[in-house]
Write a structure and sequence with these properties.
Length: 216
Amino acid sequence: MARGTRFGSIHSNADLGLIQQAVEITPPEPRTNIVDVPGANGGKDLTEALGIGVTYKDCAITWTFALYPGSSWAQKRSLVSNALNGLACHIVFDDDPEWYYDGRLSVSKYEAEWPLRQIIVEAVCRPYKRRIMLSQETAALSTTEKLLTLEIGDMPVVPEITVDVQTTLTWGDTRLTINPGTHTFPALRMKGTQQITVKGSAPGTIKIEWREGSLA
């Protein structure tokens, strides 16, 4: 099968018969907050003043597709429009199969200048692409503290924590005790390499899950 892109359950080549000629990914723009201070040299950068790091606007992706020789131009236009125009979906590139983008599609242009016939598809996507498989760290709990090191990735996330015994968690200056079950804590917002100390009230198991994200 020729290289292409999967839009939800629809593959650009296998299902739509399109030749993927080009893909342009416009990196997401950082949301900056530079305040002009009268009488000062330069402005004051408040971009990270809320303590949550840099956030980003949506990113844009544009595909240029061509038709195979002998394809019906009228039928192909209808096929692509009905399948993709307005579709919200996971977007997976054949050359980056472990990651997906979340976006909404629009078929923006049909160009026919014999013998070349092209279809332009655009998407507005969330700034981070996400790993298809969840990341996971599982460890045995005991009544002795254990230090776990988590490789969270480049996108800030709040992991999901599941324990089967009462467990004390410590990260940074925060310490709390949770009961058996599955929990998320907005204050436990992680990025990059993170360490968390765990201690059970009895022998048991802790599972920490998150979905890794990356820009571009």
